[in-house]
Amino acid sequence: MAKITFITSDKETIIVEGTSGSVMQLAVDNNVQGIDGDCGGVCSCATCHVHVAPEHVEKTGKASEIEQDMLELDDNVSEYSRLCCQLEISDQLDGVVLTVAK
Amino acid sequence: MKKSAHPDPFEKARLEKGYGEMNDQDDPVTMILGLKDVRKCAHNWKSFQSGATPGRIVVPSEVNIRDTRQIPFEVDPPAHKGYRDLLEPWFKRPLEAVYQEKLKAQISDIVEEVLTKDTVEVVGDFALRLQSRALTLLLNIPYQEAETWIGWGTHVFRSEDTALDGDKANILYDYIDTQIDKAIENPGDDLYSKLLASEINGKQLTKEEVKGVMILTFAGGRDTVINAVTNAIAYFAEHPESLKQLKDTPEITGKAVEELIRYFAPLTHMGRVVTEDTQVCEHAVKADSRISLCWASANRDAKVFENPNKIVLDRKINPHVSFGFSTHNCLGATHARQIMNILLSTLAEKVTSIDIVDYKENIENLGEFKRKVGYDSITVKFNA
């Protein structure tokens, strides 16, 4: 079980819990604004862009090369950017804070 | 070679130089072939613009058959953003449950119908009808209107003997003019009325702007959806095990949609006009010449995709560019994805096998390349 906090561009804070699947799916299921997940989580649409809180980067790890290539050309990218379809929910993610990029 | 295979004609050129060349009505095109280069050029709207003479970024060029600017497709930032922000919520409606239920009913009906027939010509009697009916949902207009569009045949701009047919294009343009006038007289909940009532930066959209959005909506989603649907039927005909896989593991349907769309790349490429002397793939391109972003080639780039020429239905990482990339990525993608998603689950549920009786491939001539994009016709038998 992992507790995950999303902060949307409207500054709304949404705290949800998940046990499995991708963080993107969890966000879509909970109507987190700015996370569309159009491609269903195969890293092709970049509509699930989040910024990981700097102190939580250890929890998420780094983006793969393919994910980095997608992010590189996205708006509003930072060193803390991730596509959350590539974040699998596990205990390791518990407590992570993600700011929605869009 | 299987009948449903779509070979990659770009591999050699992509590996050796990264680009290809084709002529098109004396306005040559440098085709960008690698995934990274395609993405970079798509993102760089300052050097590679869309807001050129209307029709010029399309290959084959539509400069001689169209004066109306397609919106937001042929508009660059910053003006692009106002249009895109206005349209985005409308084109995300396919995510709504009620939209999906209606689409599901439509697709279920047509699949049930073809199951009762001896043989079916998929392009004209299945894909075109399915696409046209689904478009009534996107436009939010009565279902019966689809009959008019089905009557136009499979190509809005093409006829049997020419790649571009001005007379055929005019049928669409005149139709849209008439529909806009009707919506002005009698506003409703349809896309025409919605656009006519919209403002950007305090300025009401003009009739010409509304027409530009509507032409894009009709033209962009016609051949592309028809190709995606038809090619999927051909694929399942030769891969009944895939239908079974979708039936047994429906949770992979979303991944399967992306993978089929990657492999088919229903739109081969899209052009841009170069605004300054520059380089792509260490090759000089001149200001006012054209490049194209070859989605079909990029989707087979072995630097990114393992076994790029194989359909792996549950491919997990799939950063394809069939819906384009960056500023101008496909506005209709949400609608297209829903169509394919529901089509796949309906086929998996109701169809056990499909037999190909006869077919004729649609091969595009692209200078040094020839690419199969779909079928001119393909006759099959659907089995329950």
Average pLDDT taken over every residue of chain B: 95
- Supply the number of helical segments of chain B: 14
Q: Hey, roughly how much beta strand do the residues of chain A contain?
A: 15-25%
CATH superfamily of chain B: Cytochrome P450
Biggest pleated sheet of chain B: 5 strands, mixed
**Secondary-structure element string of chain A:** EEHEHHEE
Total beta strand runs of chain A: 5
Give the DSSP E fraction of chain B (strand runs of 2 or more residues).
15-25%
CATH class category of chain B: Mainly Alpha
Helix content of chain B: 40-55%
Name the features.
heterodimer; A: 102 residues; alpha+beta; Ubiquitin-like (UB roll); B: 384 residues; Cytochrome p450; five-stranded mixed β-sheet; three-stranded antiparallel β-sheet; 14 helices; 44% helix
SSE inventory with pairings:
The complex is a heterodimer of chains A (102) and B (384).
Chain A: E1 2-7, E2 13-18, H1 23-29, E3 49-52, H2 57-60, H3 65-72, E4 81-83, E5 97-100
Parallel strand pairs in A: 1-5
Antiparallel strand pairs in A: 1-2, 3-4, 3-5
Chain B: H1 11-16, E1 19-22, E2 29-32, H2 35-43, E3 48-49, H3 79-91, H4 97-115, E4 120-121, H5 122-139, H6 146-151, H7 166-185, H8 191-196, E5 199-200, E6 203-204, H9 207-220, H10 223-238, H11 240-248, H12 253-264, E7 270-274, E8 278-280, E9 283-285, E10 290-293, H13 295-298, H14 333-350, E11 353-366, E12 369-383
Parallel strand pairs in B: 2-10
Antiparallel strand pairs in B: 1-2, 3-7, 4-12, 5-6, 7-10, 8-9, 11-12
Helix pairs in contact in B: 4-5, 4-14, 5-10, 7-9, 11-14, 12-14
